[in-house]
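On to our target:
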Amino acid sequence: MPTTFLSSLGAQFDIPAVVREVVRFIKVDPKRKYKVIIGTDSQQSGSANPDFVTAIVVHRVGNGGIYFFRRHELKRFHTLRDRIIREVLISLEVAEKVLTELRDYANEIAWDFEIHADVGENGPTSALIQEVTGIIRASNFTVKTKPESYAASKVADRHV
């Protein structure tokens, strides 16, 4: 899996560099509330291998934010469930790496942390909500689903 993330302007960052940018962004206005969010979306068309895009979003609540993303291709999945579970596992993997780096700054900045899953009450993913949210909660993360899961359903989706 690629380890390089791109900023919205196209600059390349590894996870430690992403975290330094996150910290820099938060320190600009440290009195605001911040959410660091991880979300992954995928798309599989026809017989092609699916593209997975993972986004790291820093939301300055009430005043915009920044994001970073990476794209990679995985083998073809035969069921929607398998592909959605893979999205969740990728998000959890990135979340662990980001949090490991962020903990070094715990005394300097404050943030909330969320995982956004690309599942919702309507559509074919509705049967997966309990399973997906259970996996994420079991990993001790706050989870958001559609329509609140904008890191996956809007930011990552934009680059898939």
Remarks:
- Residues 5-159 form one domain.
- The chain has a mean pLDDT of 94.
